Amino acid sequence: MTLFPELAELGDRLERVCAANLAARPRRARRMLLIAVVVAAVLGGAAAIAAEQLSTSDVEHSLPAGTAVFIGTDPVCTVVEKDVEYHCVLARPPFHEWAQDWSNAKEETVDSTKHVNGGCVGLSSDGLEWECYLGQSAVDHGTIDQHFLGQYAPEPAHG
After folding, report:
1. Per-domain residue ranges for the chain?
2. What parts of the chain have a pLDDT lower than 70?
3. Rounded to whole angstroms, what are the CA distances from 5 to 94, 105, 156?
4. Does the global pTM surpass 0.85?
């Protein structure tokens, strides 16, 4: 799971530049390879540190940050699989005038940097239970589209 899409993009760009340099200048191959390995290790370490710092509180805050219907619902989430899947129960049902059955409803979640980090699917018709997935797992479970993951979302979605 990539919590910081910008880091992944930076790593991809670095790999492309290194590959181009290696092809153009064989004499520098070892040095460029060493630099690429060091940068990849640093980026991987940063992502691992970020993942370790994710808490259930972060997930609970990501629901109303992603979708306005969760504002004021006071979610409480428990770990199903750390940094991947969480089961969330709301103190109050989500509000929306058109929703009468929240079963299988899909809503995005947004992290503290205001980027889409996952999505949840409704488990109960009253909207009190949700299964939430982060990162690529959200895409794999169909709660959000691949292109939507990591997108900037400055305010909760409405409707």
Report:
1. 5-52, 56-148
2. 1-8, 10-11, 14, 17-53, 97-98, 159
3. 29, 26, 20
4. no
